[in-house]
Amino acid sequence: MASRKKFLKVIILGDSGVGKTSLMNQYVNKKFSVSYKATIGADFLTKDVVVDDRLVTLTLWDTAGQERFQSLGVAFYRGADCCVLVYDVNNAKSFDNLNSWRDEFLIQASPRDPDTFPFVVLGNKIDVDEAKRMVSGRRAQAYCLSKGQLPHFECSAKDGENVEVAFEAIARQALAQDESEIDYFDPTVNTGFPIESGGCSC
């Protein structure tokens, strides 16, 4: 076990209502709420995990999906080690917008090497009736392949299916991205932007 704990910053992006906050809460707190409350600005949760015998602290940033908050991106994206793109498998538009979220992140975060920066794609709400599904797994996999073989997981924030596995992969990607030096952005520092706790984007 490493003596020095690493801090890894993960940004979670996607349209409003795809379940970003719910995925975070399911992973960190093993809880799900059926109530919906849009995230204002950004919210974050932390969790200590062990990745390949390394103790790391994941700082998961849940950013608002509403367009009026996208301009807040620079402060929140700075120092990110991995970006998670979330869509609702029952909402084709949320899938179609993944490209916009990915491009916006690369512009705002300005990673040292945009071509190799790690993204992970999550398709949420697979617990909903299969007949209502609008985005097939094959279509999502084709998108991920076209973007450089991005890891892709289908999951359910409601019942927890595949959530743990997905975030283990996210932690691994984040650790690999910045193994030698962590540019850690302290989430407790006031950015001047609203930080809200307890939101649920179910």
From TrEMBL:
GO biological process, one term: regulation of vacuole fusion, non-autophagic
Alphabetized Pfam families for the sequence: Ras
Cross-referenced Gene3D superfamilies: P-loop containing nucleotide triphosphate hydrolases (3.40.50.300)
NCBIfam families registered for this protein in UniProt: small_GTP
Family per similarity comment: Belongs to the small GTPase superfamily. Rab family.
Full protein name: Ras-domain-containing protein
This protein's record includes keyword Transport: no
